[in-house]
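agent> step 3/5: call structure_predict on target 'Riboflavin biosynthesis protein RibD' (Roseivivax marinus).
agent> reason: downstream docking stage needs a structural representation; sequence fetched in step 2, passing through unchanged.
tool.input:
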Amino acid sequence: MTAADDARHMAHALALGRRGMGRAWPNPAVGCVIVTGGRVVGRGWTQLGGRPHAETEALAQAGSAARGATAYVTLEPCAHHGQTPPCAEALIAAGVARVVAAVEDRDDRVSGAGFAMLRAAGVAVETGVLSAQAEEDHAGFFQRTTEGRPWLTLKLATSYDGRIATATGESRWITGPEARAAVHGMRARHDAVLVGGGTARADDPSLTVRGWGDVPQPVRVVAARLLDLPSDGQLARTAGDVPVWLCHGPDAPGPARAGWTGRGARLLECPLAGRQLDPRAVMAALGAAGLTRVFCEGGGMLAASLLSAGLVDEVIGFTAGLALGAEGQPSLGPLGVDRLDEAPRFALVETRAAGRDVMHRWRKA
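tool.output (status=ok):
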């Protein structure tokens, strides 16, 4: 195989792995391609809930053709016994001759042990092929592994003067149908959608993926200190069908806790920072629950608290070609920024049209 061949097959594996985004947590969304004689004989990606793993899926498809083949994997094959046997052992048992992996795992249970197991069995191992792309795809899993919190994407849909609603609260729709469809696709690629209690009360959102067919739904998370949310709203009515997790404070009333638990919601108690939920504690609780990628859709106070705490990893903005003026509602609550060098700063990754609107994506600088 040439370097160009390796890159081409790894790009294929990365594309497959992305099919598991938003579905594979708490495990990473891995892709695997098995190639022999220049022909793909097996493909796989991590399945719903994190099992089966990508290598297992690809080996099952390849069958006996895996003997002597090369396996392209977007993450180091696991080496520990969990709910499934180690993928490194499965590759060895199948007779794979060479493994090309994009990046090493950060999980202490693996972290080089998978590669060592393969090499000890005589399997050739190469790493670093399209590693930058793999680092980006696995950023949420790595961050939860090393820092205990999921990757956080903040989405803002605003007028070009940064407003999310008129002074009277009218907000549907600032952006057009193409931008809204793109947002639903982004929801589908995240493990959870997060909003604040104010947004849940004002908008009565469903927070589900719509218009993308029959796809697994993300967990719907609301940060509401006192659990003072509509008991007859969309989230309450559907909590038994699509997961609802509620991050609340230690002072949330007992009847409210019992009511939401009875509806099927999962409650995550978080400590306070002043009079509000501690945003770091909220993200740590979501990480401890297994989430690797969270998509925050506001509101302004929650978004500001996450930005101020340095917890936002990526900002995706949709800007519409209209102005609402100073009396309109701003997209962010107070940040307490007195000087420019105190402001949260991000680096531009991409800009593209979304119908009549503009989508711009930024990463933490």
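agent> step 4/5: record observation. The chain has two domains: 3-141, 148-364.
agent> proceeding.
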